[in-house]
Amino acid sequence: MNNPFLKIITAALILIITNSLDLFGQEKDTKEIYPGIVYEKIINKKDRLVINILSVDLKNKTYLIDAVKANNMLASKEATSSLSARLNSRGINVIAAVNADFWEPDGEIVNNMISNGTFVKAVSGHSDVRQNRIFSQFALTRNDKPLIERFDFKGKIFFKDGSSAAIDRINSRTDSSKITLYNSYQGNETPMIHKDWNSFEAGLKPAGTKGDTLLFVPGGKFNYGGETPVPANGFVLSSNNDEARLLEEKITKDDTLKVLLNLVPNCGNIFMLTGGIPRIVKDGKNLAAESDTLDGMKTSFTVTQHPRTGIGISKDSTKLFLFTVDGRQESSSGMSLKEFADLMLRHGVYQGLNLDGGGSTTMVIDGKVVNHPSDKTGERPVGSCLVIIKK
């Protein structure tokens, strides 16, 4: 073939065919929708699969990736598209969003969560209260380093006399003889405390920082029994039984209290954090076959094909992947966790985490839902979302 024009046409045809039909017999449509952000849609009629994949170049500092709580409230649910539209209405340019963590019936997320550097929820010793275990969580540091770890919350308050006490939780209903912090994600006031418990609550107003230590001064009246107003940009320090007696002795109105809110392992300054269940790719290996023992998941969840949402990191930690797989439909049957992990591996994921799936699975790009949620009633309200924002 010596004709240059024919060579160009042939090369173009090969490129078109390769882009639309890959080696697995799948129809593919791949395009860069923004600089460094690639969207890929895969339709596999043979295996009845519809897949959406978004990859983000983390070296491109134009974008911000964050976890956002539904309606900015711990106990609330919101559709992914509605959450995206709400942020856009505030002048925040949301490029894309997917549903994130698993959630309780009232919308409270199951795992620890940090949004825009602020704790939405944290529990010491276990990220899931009911099962008393620490699940894997996805995090981004302030310098855009992505991580998947079993983060455990470790909080501490230091008193004027130099002594200290452990803070057990943030915005999660407390156990007996524990100390909890509540902020605006809890609502306007703290929940009621068990009527048979001794209690002590104090509002904390921000008074600056010292390194990684937060400084607070008590504000308002000390309260007993719960329902204490939450100060703007501050916390309520809530305690009961043994810890209530301790705080009542230690805190006076003119104190400056030091508070440390840490995650273990300590991986630096965490900007955002969201949980998932379970981790399915670790160091380039498919963990899904072990997921029953790793996170106590039922076979009906791991082996049965369901709609899936997930997040992945490339080996060099410079690329982030968001996945949705439609399911429970004639056009798309869904995936088992093993199949989902294999999908991630084929697309360059080195560390991967399964997020909430089923009827929650939703991907929104430029305000439009690009997948087909499985509920007959349409898109399902969820507890939280991961969003990609143009700075």
Any descriptors?
about 400 residues, 10-stranded mixed β-sheet, 8-stranded antiparallel β-sheet, 6 helices, about 15% helix, elongated
Walk me through the structure:
- The structure is a single chain.
- This protein has helices at residues 4-20, 80-89, 241-250, 291-295, 299-302, 337-346; strands at residues 27-34, 37-44, 49-57, 63-69, 93-99, 113-115, 118-123, 137-141, 146-149, 152-158, 164-167, 169-170, 179-182, 199-210, 213-223, 235-240, 257-264, 270-275, 279-282, 285-286, 308-313, 319-325, 351-355, 363-365, 368-369, 384-390.
- It has 391 residues and is mainly beta.
- It folds into two domains: 49-118 and 276-390, no CATH class; 154-264, no CATH class.
- The N and C termini lie far apart (49 Å).
The shape is elongated
Q: How many domains in all?
A: 2
Q: In whole angstroms, how far apart are the ends? A: 49 Å
Which strand order does the major sheet show?
A: 6-7-12-13-16-14-15-17-10-11
Number of strands: 26
Task: Give Rg in angstroms.
Answer: 23 Å
Structural class: mainly beta
Helix content: 10-25%
What are the low-pLDDT stretches, counting only 5+ consecutive residues below 50?
A: 7-18
- Estimated share of beta-strand residues: 35-45%
List the helices and strands and how they pair.
Blueprint: H1 4-20, E1 27-34, E2 37-44, E3 49-57, E4 63-69, H2 80-89, E5 93-99, E6 113-115, E7 118-123, E8 137-141, E9 146-149, E10 152-158, E11 164-167, E12 169-170, E13 179-182, E14 199-210, E15 213-223, E16 235-240, H3 241-250, E17 257-264, E18 270-275, E19 279-282, E20 285-286, H4 291-295, H5 299-302, E21 308-313, E22 319-325, H6 337-346, E23 351-355, E24 363-365, E25 368-369, E26 384-390
